[in-house]
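Translate structure to sequence.
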């Protein structure tokens, strides 16, 4: 994880090792689908390898190039630079467009921290001139169902003053399973005290199709209830602490 914008992809590999061969074959035989999140150009990069003789290291090297290109595009163009994922039937999924739409829906955050939300919409442009802001980039290899899932993220920390702070944790590329992930939170002064805000959004095609919408609604309600319960517990602890 680096705060100067650079990332080292030299240690990217297919983990866990027991599924490395399957993952390697998935990339060698990739096609427009929701199995792997790849653009048309990225699919062509893997197809350029010799399927019969390509080594795991060679396939991993192509993946490293994909990650580097996506990082550069995001840091130079922001959400507009995120290449779409190619799906079946000539469809493309645009994670950058979706992240923009979800960020625009943060109406409460936009009222209390307009400069920060504008920055997250227009990154790398319109960096707040007031207060302090720090951007950190990183990548992580998740083990989901014994499948290595590479994700690149952008963390942005904003502090306007001693009573106003915000943070955005954005996964702008996920190799499979999810389309994008974004969490936004902060503490903001209001007449009644301090407003604690948290918004989380995870996009996936894995619950598409029949019943998909209902599953998403149910999942959101369950997760929302758990998050609310956690914040209520934290608030009660703080009240107990300061009332003693």
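Result:
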């Amino acid at each position: 994880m680096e705060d100067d914008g650079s990332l080292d992809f030299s240690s990217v590999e297919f983990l866990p090792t027991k599924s490395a061969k399957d993952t390697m074959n998935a990339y060698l035989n990739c096609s427009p689908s929701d199995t792997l999140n790849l653009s048309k150009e990225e699919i062509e990069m893997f197809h350029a390898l010799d399927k019969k003789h390509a080594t795991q290291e060679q396939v991993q090297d192509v993946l490293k190039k994909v990650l580097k290109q996506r990082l550069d595009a995001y840091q130079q163009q922001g959400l507009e630079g995120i290449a779409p994922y190619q799906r079946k039937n000539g469809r493309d999924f645009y994670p950058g467009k979706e992240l923009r739409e979800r960020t625009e829906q943060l109406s409460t955050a936009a009222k209390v921290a307009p400069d920060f939300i504008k920055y997250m919409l227009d990154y790398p442009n319109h960096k707040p001139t007031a207060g302090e802001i720090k951007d950190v980039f990183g990548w992580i290899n998740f083990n989901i169902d014994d499948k290595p899932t590479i994700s690149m993220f952008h963390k942005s920390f904003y502090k306007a003053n001693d009573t106003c702070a915000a943070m955005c944790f954005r996964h702008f590329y996920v190799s499979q399973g999810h389309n994008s992930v974004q969490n936004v939170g902060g503490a903001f002064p209001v007449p009644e005290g301090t407003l604690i805000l948290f918004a989380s959004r995870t996009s996936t095609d894995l619950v598409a199709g029949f019943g998909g919408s209902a599953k998403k609604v149910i999942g959101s309600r369950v997760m929302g209830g758990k998050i609310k319960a956690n914040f209520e517990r934290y608030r009660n602890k703080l009240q107990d602490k300061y009332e003693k």
